[in-house]
Amino acid sequence: MAELRKFIICFSLIILALSSAGCRTIKAPSEPYETWVPPAREKTSISPDTMWEAIRRREIDTSKPLVLFELVDIAIGNNPTTRQAWENARAAEAKVKQAQSEWYPQVEISAEGAGQKKDTNLDVNDQDNIYARPGGEFTFLLLDLGGRNARIRGAIQDMLEANFQFNRSLQNLILNTETAYFELYSAQSQVEAATADLEDAGTAFYTARERHKVGLVSKLDVLQAESSYDQALYYLEEARGNVQTARANLAQELGLPADAVFEIACPAQKVPAYLPRENVSLLIEEALMERPDIAAGRASLRSKAEAIRAADSDIWPSLTIGASGNAGWYKYFGNEETALDRKYGHDYEYSGYFNVSWDIFDGFRNINKKREARSEMEKEREKLRQSELAASADVWTKYYNLKTAGKKFVFSEAFLESATASRELAARGYKTGLKDILDLLQAQSQLQDARSKLIESRKEVFVSLAELIHATGMLYVVEEQ
To answer: Full-prediction pTM beyond 0.90?
Structure first.
């Protein structure tokens, strides 16, 4: 009895310790207007993990400016979005193998054992016994009227959808990297343009002051020129800030920290010409054939159709065959005065069976399950229709965006040429007294606008071309030769 009491006390202490550990929970904020402070014991669980350290350790070649192909290659190797899509595709592949497992027999083994000790204050009923019983069971779905095959085919279509979505994630990453690259290049070009604007404004300011010193112009000319100069300083700082933002956006696409040090190479290729109109319908047809997201939608629709077949098979009977076996060994111990003094025993049991299962009435559950699957398929069909319409509109829009960007670039070049000539004439006229300060400042403002529009239109051409390539589903990088 003393040993029994010790056992009960130890067991109770263990249960109490486990219960106390389970009660250590994190509480919600005490008030709706106060910030939540984690308990000290939980701070280790929310401390930064090793992921950021791994990001910091990534190194790229910074010995030379990076061209677009190199940036895309870095992005594909580091950006987590494509890795997520890749893991999703791998998970879908594993689900196919899970579905295919239904064509294999299911084998299960089990074992149990126990020991019993019985002590009384009588001398005749004390006894101990030990037994062990291992067993196994084999089952195989022999027939289910197509449900098993439908589930496998559905899983295959889900895998195809995931693989197509992975391809689309690569195309999205290429487009995002290209866009971020051209944004950074344009932001850097805007700094150069803003610097040139500042030099022009400074020259005008200096000229106005010199002419004011000799009494040729009033103080108003100096103030207006100074105002233009201060505005140029403002735009220069704004342009420099935009460079840092664009650099951070590109670093994010590359899978690098925002403060990563790298330089990009300037585009060397001439601005690409826009396409003739008669190609747009062909591009739309090619997009509907090549775009991975459209192909993924078609695979999803086929998966939903297989779900209907699987649900239909649940309405009808299924046939399963199986076999099982068990064996048991027993050992009894008794005191010397009982008849159960050290006896042994064993038994064996084997069986084979087949089972026909048919839910004759289940509250219309399987019938409504089939109706649900059919509605899901029709919903997916309309979703695919919507995606195809959106894809055609996307190609059309991106096509004409490219044409418009190409024409805008041609006009911006002409605008810059005329604005440059106008500013030079206005500057010479102001120095000689033929023009007033307003003429000079207006010409200077037009030149500033022309420089900005040329940079912006050049970027729009490259970005529009990248977006058109993305809209048609081609895996192609807009590279400068």
So the answer is: no
